[in-house]
Amino acid sequence: MSENSRKIRLLMELRRQGISDTNVLSAVERVPRELFVQDAFLDQAYENIALPIKHGQTISQPYVVAFMTEALKVGPRMKVLEVGTGSGYQAAILALLCRRVYTVERYRVLLREAEERFAEMRLTNITSRVADGYKGWPEQAPFDRIIVTAAAPEMPPVLIEQLAVGGIMVLPVGRSTTDQQIVRVTKNEDGSIATEKLMAVRFVPLVDGLAQDE
Known about the structure:
seven-stranded mixed beta sheet, alpha/beta, 28% helix
């Protein structure tokens, strides 16, 4: 089966699983997932599964990426913060949907490789840096949207502070892989927050501090 056929099959599967936002589906179609997976897993690039990357991290299952992106309700004029760059796949999807993506990663090696992929795709609206995800990116706050791609044991208050009024954050929350839920947080006009549990998931944990990878 050709790569294009595999991609079409994946898009059909995402539709069957309930992904209906045509902009999100178009972004998934336009981002070459094979660019973001390790060579050993190239033949599985368009399977609807999570795949390992360096430092014990993963590139998320395409359905989970599409689901979280759809739940984020991203618009073309928005400024988005991503916590946990990883392979860069989620940031690349977001870059096709919003004005600017700011993405932070604790592993320098992962970030450097992701930046090379962004350059190869000519994605000029992504700004990235090595940073502690728990601290967000205060100099660029507030953000219209925030997405977290690792599971926090509870809602990170600093990230809620960096969310604009009317903004939405989507993140996995849970203390173990058996009780994680994707949660959507909306900041109301009075600064209060509303939360919705959307789906049970299994993510790697969100870790404090910077990694000693070099």
